[in-house]
Specification:
There is one protein chain. Helices cover 68% and strands 0% of the residues. The protein is built from six helices and no strands. It is globular, with a radius of gyration of 24 Å. 6% of the residues are buried. The longest helix is centred in the N-terminal third of the chain and has 30 residues, at 2-31. It has two domains: 1-31; 35-172, no CATH class. The chain has helices at 2-31, 35-56, 60-78, 84-96, 118-135, 147-172.
């Protein structure tokens, strides 16, 4: 009887877990096409976290770690999946080996494909912010630091990495955003 009871409990747990996974997937399928409301919700969650940090006057290490993680995700969002510098090196090797280079009129269209897609960027932003909020309720993560140094270091890190990223975008002539790009289709 004990084995059968434990088997029933295990199977009921699996059924409950499966129901939660299905509901979670349905929620994600529902919110996927709604880009602007998703990001508004993410920004509100970020404001709640920042308000929590300011109000509690602590957990600066958690906030700094969260900000570094978001900066890393933002850089992945801005970079192309296929790095143009590597493609240019391959093209230069082909020219040196005698394989002819295509002229500018023969170049094929290469769409901008992100290393980190927008939806995954949103998902990681929401999950990391939720984890950061949760961590801000445990005193073990409230390590005493002089927060102005962390802010200054983050600003310097942000400026240096964005400068390098913008230089890379200008050098290889790619734009990760579609603002002002021509849209094709019926009116």
């Amino acid at each position: 009887m004990d084995f059968e009871d434990s088997q029933r409990e295990s199977s009921s747990f699996d059924i409950y877990k499966h129901k939660i996974e299905v509901q979670y997937r349905l929620f994600l399928d529902y919110v996927t096409p709604h880009i602007i409301p998703r990001w508004i919700a993410a920004y509100l969650l970020m404001l709640i976290f920042m308000g929590r940090i300011v109000w509690a006057e602590g957990w600066y290490i958690v906030c700094y770690t969260w900000a570094i993680f978001l900066l890393n995700m933002f850089l992945k969002f801005l970079t192309p999946k296929f790095d143009p510098s590597i493609e240019q090196d391959i093209e230069n090797d082909n020219i040196e080996s005698g394989v002819g280079k295509m002229d500018e009129n023969d170049e094929e269209f290469k769409p901008f494909i992100r290393r980190l897609p927008e939806f995954k960027f949103w998902m990681k932003t929401v999950s990391s912010t939720s984890i950061a909020i949760l961590c801000s309720f445990f005193s073990v993560f409230d390590i005493p630091v002089f927060w102005p140094i962390l802010v200054a270091y983050f600003i310097i890190l942000f400026l240096l990495t964005m400068r390098r990223q913008i230089q890379h975008m200008l050098k290889y002539k790619y734009i990760p955003f579609d603002f002002g790009k021509m849209k094709y289709g019926s009116k």
